[in-house]
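SAMPLE LOG
Freezer: B-3
Tube label: C17
Construct: single chain, 223 aa
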Amino acid sequence: MDNRRKLVSALDPKSPITEQYRTIRTNIQFASIDKELNTIMVTSAGPGDGKSTTAANLAVTFAQQGKSVLLVDADLRKPTAHYTFNLTNTVGLTSVLTKQITLDEAYVESSISDLSILPSGPIPPNPAELLSSVSMDTFLKQAMEQFDHVIFDTPPVLAVTDAQILANKCDGVILVVSSGKTEVEEATKAKEMLIASKGKLLGAVLNNKKLTDSDYYYYYGKN
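STRUCTURE (predicted):
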């Protein structure tokens, strides 16, 4: 998939797909009445379900509201945000967590107003340890002080423990499933694992649902 398809919310604001992303954004905003959801984690059951595309487009739609948004590529195993936004990946989240550079030095302002990107940085040998570290807690605090919303793209739940580690650090979690690809059993197991890790599961996005007027359809629903 090329970047035009990946960032449809930025490149084609009148697209039915973009409208679905706006619907997801609206539902997220109404998901918690008492507490604003500032940190949101996007994950999937398995690889190839479209979590990174969903995270990127959600970040764009939040930024289009005039909110300052930081999209963090927390998939420290197979990062993609630098490809999506045509950035280098020489420094990023791992550089901040290992105290090589500061957050201010690491993130990059995108071509989309109010949207900044923090690539993964060099792939580390110990992703889970980095994400569960005190440095990660410090990073979260700093990011929340500087941005209205921080959106994390994390590895699939069933593949590694990374998503579970981040789930209880974030205000809310979105699970992406792929129509015709993700098995019901896999989606159920992923949901159970996220809940077991004390993550606040907001709902699921159904990706790759074929319709007559659109190649992709995104559905958001409460559990």
